Structures are given as structure tokens and as C-alpha cells.
Model the fold of this input.
Amino acid sequence: MQYLNKATGKGWTQIDFYDLRYMLMLLDKYPATKDLRVNVIDVAIKEINEKSPIKAEYELIKKGRKYTAVKFTFELKEKDKKKKGDTERDPNTIDWVNGATDNELKKAPSWQTKGLSDAQIRKIGVNKQEFIDANSGKISPNDHRSYDEIFESWKPQLKDPKQAVTFNKVQELLDRKRTS
Done:
């Protein structure tokens, strides 16, 4: 007989002494139940409790005056139990919603979460032509405005974090050192 509850991590199994001796190839060894208990069962239970994430116990089952079976009970140790709904996220796994890992989101530059500041927009404005060329997909083909006019019209979008992340070359231009 045996029972296992996967949700709680608890279970038990009951084994006849003859079957236990047979499984462990101890039919001719430890004829007394006390010897089997002290030299085999106690040692095994102690080792399981020390070296595994399982807490094991046993009780001897009597029929009349004689012990006939042993019932092992086991459960996951408290620190190894996982509570329902308690899911731990791997910080290096790519999230299917935003396409970035948790670590990447923590390291995201401030402009991606708050939008570009006026100083950052001015810094990008130094390389205005290169920036606009990199984002030419945002300009309609029949738009004949100058680079200055296009850049001025983009400034409100660059301040909005949701729209700023859609622009190309922002981080590259912000990281670029001035050559003077």
C-alpha cells in the first residue's frame, strides 16, 4: 500500500518485513526485527533526512505480539515546498510579452522609462541629420521639410517614453562622445 499527494508533497508506503528483507537482499541477515531496525532502517532514515530534500519517518506495524511491517511516511522539507501561485521567475529568461529579460529591464536606461530630457534631446540634435536618416521610416515620402523642422516636430515624441523607444540610434547617439 502506498499514497502520495503531489500538492502537499506528503506520502507514505507500507512494506512487509519479508518483502523489505527480500528487496534489500537481507533474507539471511538480521533475523531479529530490532537488528534490522537499528542497522538498516535507522541508518537509511538518518541519511535520507540529512542528504535529501525529504523528511522521512517510520513506524513499526504490529499484528498480535509480532512486528510484521514498517510504514514509511515522508514529506518535502519546509524550505523545498513550493506554494501554489508562488512562482519564481528566472531573471535571464526572455519575457514573451516585452521581449526582454528581467535583468535587462532593470538595467534599462532612464530615457526608456521616463522619456528623453531636454539635454538628451539637444545631444541627439548635434547629430540631427544622422538621427533623422536612421529614422526615415517615420517620415512620409512626400514630406519635404528640412532636418530642423522634422527634428522639432519629433521633440514631443522623444519626451514620451512609449514613443521614444520606437526611435532608432537613440542610445548610440547618447553614448557618443563629443569630438572637439
